[in-house]
Design a protein that fits this description.
Layout (H helix, E strand, L loop, with lengths): L2 H16 L4 H10 L3 H4 L17 H5 L25 H5 L6 E3 L2 E2 L4 H10 L5 H14 L8 E4 L4 H7 L3 H13 L2 E2 L4 E3 L11 H7 L4 E3 L7 E9 L3 H12 L4 E9 L6
Parallel strand pairs: 1-8, 2-8, 3-4, 3-7, 7-8
Antiparallel strand pairs: 5-6
Helix pairs in contact: 7-9
Length: 262
């Protein structure tokens, strides 16, 4: 089908829907109409109805879930009910008190994350944030007082045009009803990308990289990022907040790399 014909077909479908009375009837009509598959395809397989988040139920179930993870750094662990912390966190607890990271950084999720981060596919943020929100709401508990997206250095922000962590944090804050603090902390030193460095060099790369703009006046916060690799970025940021009197720092991210070298 040529593009003008497809466009006309979409407009016809939407017009027919608008002729129905009541928003619920329109939603039900769109949900049950097979032509919807051509308008809202799954972002991953491209063939099925995308559903509420933008992917079909089959693709959502096929995502690489981080089912058994370290409670503090989210490193994937062997499937056992007794292991709550990895060996490194047992021996040397990180400054982040808890990690909520529902997926492993692997296909097909990695394509969505890199698309958001490097290819300006900003519409992926709604899907990824929705997946994280869904995970957090499955385990009702006391939420932090605010969420803080991991900041980019101004030079990198100008180069990229947006901060992917902020794009994830915005809908997350709205869905959970939590305050979003997007200007509380700044990245004052331009560092090399962590993925370009060996594990031993990553902590030094982030030394004094962050600075709080004002006293946080919070006891419990959550840092939001797209992927946790070695954990040095969120740990360096958490240390800044703990020094300023914050008592508990969580880290929320979409995915966790399979190893600390990732």
């Amino acid at each position: 089908m040529r593009y003008p014909e497809k466009k006309c077909r979409i407009l016809e479908v939407l017009w027919r829907g608008c002729q129905l009375t009541g928003r619920s009837k329109i939603n039900n009509w769109l949900k049950n109409n097979p032509i919807r598959l051509n308008i809202f395809p799954c972002l991953l397989c491209g063939t099925s109805d995308s559903g509420r988040l933008g992917i079909c139920s089959a693709c959502e179930q096929a995502l690489p879930h981080n089912l058994s993870a370290c409670r503090r750094c989210a490193l994937p662990l062997p499937d056992t009910r007794h292991a709550q912390l990895c060996g490194q966190c047992l021996g040397s607890p990180p400054p982040c008190h808890q990690a909520q990271v529902p997926y492993i950084y692997a296909a097909p999720l990695d394509a969505l994350i890199t698309g958001l981060k490097f290819r300006q596919q900003l519409h992926y943020a709604r899907l990824l944030s929705g997946l994280l929100t869904q995970h957090l709401m499955k385990n009702p508990r006391q939420y932090p007082e605010c969420i803080v997206p991991v900041p980019l250095h101004p030079a990198r922000l100008r180069e990229r045009g947006y901060n992917q962590a902020l794009e994830l944090a915005r809908p997350l804050a709205r869905s959970l009803g939590i305050r979003l603090e997007k200007n509380l902390v700044q990245r004052v030193r331009q560092t090399r990308p962590q993925t370009e460095l060996k594990l031993a060099s990553r902590a030094a790369n982030l030394h004094q990289a962050f600075r709080l703009k004002r006293p946080p006046n919070y006891r419990h916060i959550a840092l939001v990022d797209d992927v946790i690799t070695s954990g040095h970025t969120v740990n360096a940021l958490a240390c800044e907040f703990l020094r300023e009197g914050v008592e508990k720092v969580e880290v929320w991210a979409i995915a966790r790399a399979l190893s600390r070298n990732g």
